[in-house]
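Action item from last week, closing it out:
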Amino acid sequence: MNKIVRYEVDLGSLPPLTEERKAELRALADRPDSEIDYSDIPPLTEKFWLNAVRNPFYKPTKTSTTVRVDSDVLAWLKGQGKGYQTRINAILREAMLRSLRHKEREQS
């Protein structure tokens, strides 16, 4: 039997840092980047990004909302079978990604 343990952290009320931890963080911040050991981290080349895929376990959080949709649009979505809300999300995600790619092209 698998047991899932979940922890929630309230970022608004974290425990205070000890003086020892503050000193450690200051020492790390003061070190130059040239002292960072990247030997166990392969460089991410353009080839890497061409073959990169989204984490298969990635699952965005869902938010419940109310949306007013034209009746004929809703009838069309529902007429395609079960999962009309999933289709709405897929259509909106595609539009969002297209918009983001367009903005990236404008900025470069």
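Closing note: The mean pLDDT is 91.
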